[in-house]
Amino acid sequence: MPDLPDAIVQMFGEVLGEFDDVEMAPDEYVEQGDTVVVLAHFKGTAKATGKSVELPYVYVWRMKDGKAARCQFLTDTGLGAQAAGRL
Questions:
Q1: Cβ distance 37 to 30 under 8 Å?
Q2: What pLDDT is stored for residue 4 in this prediction?
């Protein structure tokens, strides 16, 4: 089984590799205790279809002793898959 951080980096590389003109940018940070929520957006043009897509996404970071202990990534994967011609 691959190391989890390596698997995550590989997965993001594969997904982002399907798009040109990629922009990923944070819009807002919300912090409460040991939780940091990052509201952000992704823009890109799917290589397979030429369709432009803009997706909101959210990172939820759980911190422990000043370090990231867990991270959740949430977005509309269906919309991205449609733009890339996968659905």
A1: yes
A2: 56
| Residue 40 contacts residue 59 (beta carbons within 8 Å) | yes
Residue 64 phi/psi, 5-degree rounding, is -145, 125
**Residues 26 and 17: beta-carbon distance below 8 Å:** no
**Which CATH architecture does the domain made up of 4-82 adopt?**
Roll (3.10)
**Residue in the block written with tokens 């040109």:** 20
* pLDDT tens digits, 62-83: 999 988 888 898 988 888 888 8
pTM attached to this predicted model:
0.72
* Tokens representing residue 57 in the block: 């996404």
Q: Is the Cβ–Cβ distance between 25 and 41 less than 8 Å? A: yes
41 strand-pairing partners: 25, 56
